[in-house]
């Protein structure tokens, strides 16, 4: 299986930038996903990284370093609606199906 | 924007009863999945389905679980004899290829 580690909770201020880190230990890496999940709702897809580097998509960017087993999700110009759980998920070991971490609960305050 | 639709949104059942959770994946997607999330815990993979057969399953997906695609649009998860620990949110998801999964809004199953 995969060991996926991310902080349990983070807080940030509206308008600021926050970086949510994710580290993983696995073999046969096939990709890393980030999902957003509001309380009581389904996860929604944010990003999918297979190669090293930074991918930017609007206010959200995701970075991957396969050699370090490390990824981060960067959220810019934070809005109150960004308060949610951010799930890091890794596909590995001959499978393309993501295994989810426990998620990071982000609280954005005014 | 295309959606994955799940019914019912809530289901309460007695221990030992059979339940069927229903999903309509996005129409041009080829890969279908069931995940579950016990309250306060992480999202866990149950099973994937491609080309009318199970392609992968987790150790959670034991003999009490089964999946079916009875027609061209529906994808169902059956739990034969529910246990208290089956209480969770069950998410259906679909994808067109490896990569972005679209999740449905979930069915909250409560076993009493």
Throw out a few tags for this protein.
heterodimer; A: about 110 residues; mainly beta; 6-stranded mixed beta sheet; 5-stranded antiparallel beta sheet; about 0% helix; globular; B: mainly beta; 7-stranded mixed beta sheet
Q: N-to-C SSE series of chain B?
A: EEEEEEEEEEE
The oligomeric state is heterodimer
| Backbone CA Rg of chain B | 13 Å
Q: Please name the two chains that share the biggest interface, counting residues whose Cβ lies under 8 Å from a Cβ on the partner chain.
A: A-B, 22 and 18 residues
| Largest sheet data of chain B | 7 strands, mixed
Straight-line N-to-C gap of chain A: 39 Å
Rg over CA atoms of chain A: 13 Å
Q: What's the overall geometry of chain A?
A: globular
Number of helices of chain B: 0
Q: What is the share of helical residues of chain B?
A: under 10%
Mean pLDDT of chain A: 95
Element order, helices and strands of chain A?
EEEEEEEEEEE
Mean pLDDT of chain B: 94
- Total strands of chain B: the figure is 11
Strand content of chain B: over 45%
Q: Pairing-aware structural class of the strands and helices of chain A?
A: mainly beta
Span of the ends, CA to CA of chain B: 36 Å
Residue windows where pLDDT falls under 50 for at least 5 positions of chain A: none
What's the arrangement of secondary structure elements?
The complex is a heterodimer of chains A (110) and B (112).
Chain A: E1 3-5, E2 9-13, E3 18-25, E4 29-37, E5 44-49, E6 53-57, E7 60-65, E8 70-75, E9 84-92, E10 99-100, E11 104-109
Parallel strand pairs in A: 2-11
Antiparallel strand pairs in A: 1-3, 3-8, 4-5, 4-9, 6-7, 7-8, 9-10, 9-11
Chain B: E1 5-7, E2 10-13, E3 19-24, E4 31-37, E5 43-50, E6 53-57, E7 65-68, E8 75-79, E9 88-95, E10 102-103, E11 107-111
Parallel strand pairs in B: 2-11
Antiparallel strand pairs in B: 1-3, 3-8, 4-5, 4-9, 5-6, 7-8, 9-10, 9-11
């Amino acid at each position: 299986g995969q060991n996926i580690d991310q902080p349990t909770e983070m807080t940030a201020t509206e308008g600021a930038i926050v970086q949510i880190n994710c580290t993983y230990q696995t073999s046969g890496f096939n990709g890393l996903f980030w999902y957003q999940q509001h309380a009581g709702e389904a996860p929604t897809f944010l990003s999918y990284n297979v190669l090293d580097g930074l991918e930017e998509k609007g206010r959200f960017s995701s970075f991957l370093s396969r050699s370090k087993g490390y990824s981060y999700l960067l959220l810019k110009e934070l809005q109150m609606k960004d308060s949610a759980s951010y799930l890091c998920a890794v596909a590995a070991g001959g499978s393309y199906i993501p295994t989810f971490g426990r998620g990071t609960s982000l609280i954005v305050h005014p | 924007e295309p959606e994955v639709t799940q019914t019912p949104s809530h289901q309460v059942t007695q221990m030992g009863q059979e339940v069927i959770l229903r999903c309509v994946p996005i129409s041009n997607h080829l890969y279908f999945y069931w995940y579950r999330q016990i309250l306060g815990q992480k999202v866990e993979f149950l099973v994937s389905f491609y080309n009318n057969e199970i392609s992968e399953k987790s150790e959670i997906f034991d003999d009490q679980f089964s999946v079916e695609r009875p027609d061209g649009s529906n994808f169902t998860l059956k739990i034969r004899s529910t246990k208290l620990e089956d209480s969770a949110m069950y998410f259906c998801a679909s994808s067109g290829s490896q990569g972005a999964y679209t999740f449905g809004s979930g069915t909250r199953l409560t076993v009493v």
